[in-house]
Amino acid sequence: YSGGHDDRMDVLSSDDFPEFSMVNPKCADGRCKKLEKQLMYAWDVMWSDPADSTVPCNEHGFGPNLRGGATMTYDSAALRTFLTNNNLCCLVRGHQERLSGVRLSHESQLLTVFSTSGYCGHSNNAGAALYTQDGHLHYITKSF
């Protein structure tokens, strides 16, 4: 996804969205095209990262990702559009190491939580977990 009409939430939340045990679909009928789209959206949601100020983004708010491959980055404008279109106030995500275990960014609408301390042998990061209590969101961290 790099901008324009965004139907990712519709596709990802549909009743026929498959459970993936591996990303190697085998089908002979017209399902392959739909399954490929579902896999692409799942990949986008899982591996795309927030852009920092050094990443050039297109008019829709998407840019290249240093992770490579088909992953993208998104800026605050792209996040705002996604949140507005899906009636959400914020996004909580993982899959990106954070030294303190958590990071609030993109106008305080994006919370990145990394749950593993000592990731890949690093001794300078913390792991974090979120929990709710009395209607409030809290986090705890554990350093390696």
List keywords for this structure.
144 residues; alpha/beta; three-stranded mixed β-sheet
Fold and architecture overview:
The protein is an alpha/beta fold and 144 residues long. It contains 3 helices and 8 strands. The longest helix is centred in the N-terminal third of the chain and has 17 residues, at 31-47. The N and C termini lie far apart (36 Å). The relative contact order is 0.12.
Radius of gyration of CA atoms, rounded to a whole number: 17 Å
Oligomer: single chain
- Total helices: the number is 3
Based on secondary structure, the structural category is alpha/beta
Q: Characterize the main sheet.
A: 3 strands, mixed
Helix content: 10-25%
Distance between the termini: 36 Å
**What spatial form do the alpha-carbon principal axes imply?**
globular
User: Please, what is the average pLDDT?
Assistant: 77
Strand arrangement within the widest β-sheet reads 1-3-2
| Share of β-strand residues | 15-25%
Task: Provide a quick synopsis of the model.
The protein is of the alpha/beta class and 144 residues long.
Task: Reconstruct the topology from this structure.
Layout lengths: L7 H5 L18 H17 L1 E2 L11 E3 L7 E3 L1 H10 L5 E3 L8 E4 L4 E4 L12 E8 L2 E8 L1
Parallel strand pairs: 1-3, 4-6
Antiparallel strand pairs: 2-3, 5-6, 7-8
